[in-house]
Design a protein that fits this description.
Layout lengths: L4 E4 L9 E4 L15 E4 L5 E3 L6 E4 L9
Parallel strand pairs: 1-5
Antiparallel strand pairs: 2-3, 4-5
Length: 67
Amino acid sequence: MTTATVELLAKDLNHAGGVYCPNPSADMKLWNSHPKVYLDVAHTGQGKCPYCGTVYKLKAGEHFQGH
């Protein structure tokens, strides 16, 4: 299985600085993947899904400003 990497813009993150996987940005259908998990991307710049291994990371130069 090849691990996918999804580059995100800061505006793609939710108000807490994270994303959920499965995610349409990763070209996944929500109904045929795995349980929904929250990944904190803002604090480390990336997060890896424990189910499918997809890595979500901030695009170079992007910075998250939390609320």
